[in-house]
Specification:
homodimer; 182 residues; Nucleoside Triphosphate Pyrophosphohydrolase; 2 domains; four-stranded mixed β-sheet; three-stranded antiparallel β-sheet; 20% helix
């Protein structure tokens, strides 16, 4: 039996199978018996890392985002490789993008970025015990590293340079901790 | 001239043009002159609403999310109609989904949900002066309304029932305010 809210998938068609996403068109039966369609984007999932320096600054990367047509400031992040453990991915992406090697990764929260059309889940971690190493970004990845205080991060949010979900969550989480709630 | 981080789109192909999303495959020139492809999902954008009741509880909706295959708890939200003002959309979606009419809508923050592959922007508002009216959900939308204290919301986050970006941002924002930082 379906609950009062659940939908049942009647038919499923793959529209596009790319290197990052897979797009699927579902025909569904609604809780009242009528039918509708759902457009669904499958994504492998990703991690984001809050990495604090010894001076208490947070490490950001500046990166061009093609879907937005602009360069924005984000926490270090990257998508999961097939079968990869999210924590291992967090260690890897932090080092690749920023050169920082961390001693420890602590999970903070995981969330779906856009549950209306995508299954992407983002696992947020806090890196502890940073050691400066060497950056090794992916061959098609061009990033600049920037370290900001909380006040500077809020200013960049006001300006719209910090403007993506995981980084807004990171800044609010950081603020909570500074206020004594984290 | 391109900056050191920017990409240039060489070719653009529309893969799928649905009722909600449009999927596009771009061939891009990277900052170092090599080429790569980018898979991009276009989305009309959306709003999410923090609506506090007179008792200081926050209004949530429970909704089945097909991409996740489960029912989750979110703040009231919905996608922008073509040409719709985000604030007008916030008033409309809050009333449709919860029955609450608001006197005022105050913008909190806007963010891209998943800048690696989508251009969806989410505008977060705070509703003030709620008056209970009548719910009028979309014909293919089935939601249940639930009102929670901050402590209850954190418990639902721990349990994984609150698990999407906009709602996690909303709960952290609320916590900041309670701690005296908002």
């Amino acid at each position: 039996m379906l609950s009062d809210l659940e939908e049942k998938t009647i038919r499923r068609r793959t529209i596009f199978d790319g290197k990052l996403i897979r797009v699927q068109l579902d025909e569904v039966e609604l809780p009242d018996g009528r039918t509708s369609t759902r457009e669904i984007v499958h994504h492998p999932g990703a991690v984001g890392v809050l990495a604090f320096t010894d001076e208490g600054k947070l490490v950001f990367v500046r990166q061009y985002r093609n879907p937005l047509g602009k360069t924005i400031l984000e926490i270090p992040a990257g998508k999961l490789e097939p079968g990869e453990d999210p924590k291992a991915c967090a260690f890897r992406e932090l080092e690749e993008e920023t050169g920082y090697r961390a001693e420890e990764m602590r999970p903070i929260v995981s969330f779906y970025t856009s549950p209306g059309f995508a299954d992407e889940i983002l696992h947020l971690y806090e890196a502890r015990g940073l050691q400066k190493g060497e950056r090794r970004p992916d061959t098609d990845e061009f990033v600049e590293v920037e370290e900001l205080t909380l006040q500077e991060a809020f200013a960049k949010m006001e300006e719209g340079q910090i403007c993506d979900a995981k980084t807004v969550v990171a800044v609010y989480f950081w603020h909570n901790r500074v206020l004594g709630g984290g």
